[in-house]
Structures are given as structure tokens and as C-alpha cells.
Amino acid sequence: MRGTDKPRSSPLVPDAVGADIARHDWESITCGCGRTAGHLVDTLWAAAEGHPAAFRALEGHAFLSARLYPPAPAVCGVLMAVWSAGPPRLATREALLWTLLSLLGSEDDGSSYEAGLYGQCAAFVRAGLPQLRRAAAAATGSVSAAYVGGIVELLGLDA
Fold this sequence. Notes:
Elements: H1 15-22, H2 40-48, H3 52-56, E1 63-64, E2 67-68, H4 72-84, H5 90-104, H6 116-138, H7 143-154
Antiparallel strand pairs: 1-2
Helix pairs in contact: 1-4, 4-5, 4-6, 5-7, 6-7
């Protein structure tokens, strides 16, 4: 197990993304699998390093089918930090956009979280929407553009 005296880092992960992962108290968040969300940190680092499978591994933890779980807003914030750090390579970009689409295609859990889980996720995505739209415009007809189109539609901003 890693010591807590040295922050985690990776040459593949920009400092801003590492800081976004570190700013959350993952151990205090109940994961969709029933454990604490602390075990998602490794998955988020793998996603930030560009491993497409890591994004799919968030299913069942931040979301499942049409349901969001408490880690969803923090996960969404990290994913948008990854996107904002620079356009990921194609496979990573498509996996990231699929995950955002899955999060936004889920329903709020009806809990008393401030803006609701969905509202918090949507706020993170809306903040990065100009970058998403630019990427879609640069790749018209691509899978990435289709995912961005779905995201925009789910946010109700397709008009």
C-alpha cells in the first residue's frame, strides 16, 4: 500500500487532473457497489492516464443502467478535468465521452444532495461544453461527434 506522505503522480496525468482526483474525500462517499468510493481512485488514475477500459470500469460504481450513485458528481468532475487538460487520444476520447453520456443518461437518485447527483454532473459537463462542441465540430460524422451530440441533447441544449 502506498504511503500517504507523497502525493500520487504520473507523467501521463497533468497536475490539475491529479489535484482534482486528490481534492475529493473518496473514503467518505458511498460507492454504487456498497463500499466506500476510495477504491475508485486507482480507476480514475488509470482513466486519466488514458486507459479506455478504466472508463467502462466506472459502471456499477458511479452509475448503472439509468441510476446515478453518490460518486457520480466527483467522477464527472475528474472526467471533465481530463478533457480540459487536452484532447485525449481517440480511444480515450470515445471512452470518456461514452462515460459522460452514460452519466447524463441516468436518472437522479432522488436524494437530498445539493443540486441532486444529476444536476451536479450536468453542471460539470455544461462548464466544459464549449470544448466538447469544438472537438465534435472538428470530427463531424465521427463516434466522438455522435457522443457529443447525445450529450448536448440530454442537457437540452440542442436547439
